[in-house]
Amino acid sequence: MSDRRPRAAWRRHPEPPPAAAQPEPSDGPSVIQATLYRDGRKVSSPETLAETYRQLREHPDGMAWIGLHRPTEEELHSLASEFDLHELAVEDALEAHQRPKLERYGDTLFVVLRAARYLDAQEEVDFGELHIFVGPDFLITVRHGGAPDLSAVRRRMEGNPDLLALGPEAVLYAILDTVVDGYAPVVAGVQNDIDEIETEVFGGDPAVSRRIYELSREMVEFQRATRPLVGMLHGLMAGFAKYGTDEELQRYLRDVADHVTHTSERVDGFRQALTEILTVNATLVTQQQNAEMRALAEAGFEQNEEIKKISSWAAILFAPTLVGTIYGMNFDNMPELHWAGGYPFAVLLMAVVCTSLYVIFKRKDWL
């Protein structure tokens, strides 16, 4: 459970129930929604970028919020031409797999965020990427992947006109808040996974090593998504005075910065915990292997002892068998065949040999 305090203004208004998650479009339109606002209230929802440009020119005191999903190169170049976006930022927005960052190009702020969501069924973390262009009268979001759900941000902001009236910067902070809030279920899911892994490690599950490795890789990605945000948010806070950020937004940003710092520390702790668990698992596996080898050695030793006993008795029994075999050949010219003391001598000889062998093997602890 989260111990975070209640959020600021946009959290004090009741939210409508979240919409069902929609499947990501593969070949559908890349413009998810374009909306114009004036004084914090929705004016229109143009269906095309050209119509959005025209209406924004007709109402220079308004704000355009354009949402895109994996846009084409032509669409981004159209936006770049209309809003004077820097070519390097446009190039980054065309390609996913960018690290979280914040850059200023004149009056335009370019932000890259890595959103995350926990998939319960697969017990894994799914990462999405969000590129945001923030200008004086526009905000453009370019989404790669399924997260985050920006429609919820739109509903929340449209339900709070006073906050939305503060402009694109307020929308940016609301998006940052949503992305950071999305980390909380991931943290909870990963914590549950780590608890299960600890149980499996001490339970001797042989498949746990693979699970530790896969979760460690996800934590590396999660760390790459959260750690840069700390510096990014502090960079935004450092520009409060220079860019005249509204005091209410300053409080919101500090709140988001506190939460992302807490999340980053938790992720660092997860990586350390997984490293320690992997070490413990390797130690337990080594101990188990040593125990198995010891058991095999003991079994081999016991087997050798049995072989010694069998071999000793076989040698003892071989001596009278040898004597009896010689005298059982029935040759006429054997000198002892007609000797009156031959039989007692043969029996005595067998007894002496067997006794001698028994004494020898007993002293060697073979018997």
Termini separation: 69 Å
Structural class: alpha+beta
The residue-averaged pLDDT reads 81
Low-pLDDT ranges: 1-28
Largest sheet: 7 strands, mixed
Number of strands: 7
Percent in strands: 5-15%
Give the ordered list of helices and strands: EEHEHHEEEEHHHHHHH
What topology, given as strand order, has the largest sheet? Answer: 2-1-3-7-6-5-4
Quickly count the helices: 10
Which range best describes the helical content: under 10%, 10-25%, 25-40%, 40-55%, 55-70% or over 70%? 55-70%
- Give the overall shape, derived from the CA principal axes: rod-shaped
C-alpha Rg (nearest Å): 41 Å
Task: Give the SSE layout.
Layout: E1 31-38, E2 41-44, H1 49-58, E3 63-69, H2 73-83, H3 87-94, E4 101-105, E5 108-119, E6 124-134, E7 138-144, H4 150-158, H5 161-164, H6 168-203, H7 208-238, H8 240-243, H9 247-327, H10 342-363
Parallel strand pairs: 3-7
Antiparallel strand pairs: 1-2, 1-3, 4-5, 5-6, 6-7
Provide structural commentary.
By secondary structure, the chain is an alpha+beta fold. It has helices at residues 49-58, 73-83, 87-94, 150-158, 161-164, 168-203, 208-238, 240-243, 247-327, 342-363; strands spanning 31-38, 41-44, 63-69, 101-105, 108-119, 124-134, 138-144. A seven-stranded mixed β-sheet has the order 2-1-3-7-6-5-4, sandwiched between helices. A hairpin with a 4-residue loop joins strand 5 (108-119) and strand 6. Helix 7 runs antiparallel to helix 9 (247-327). The longest helix has 81 residues, at 247-327. It is rod-shaped, with a radius of gyration of 41 Å.
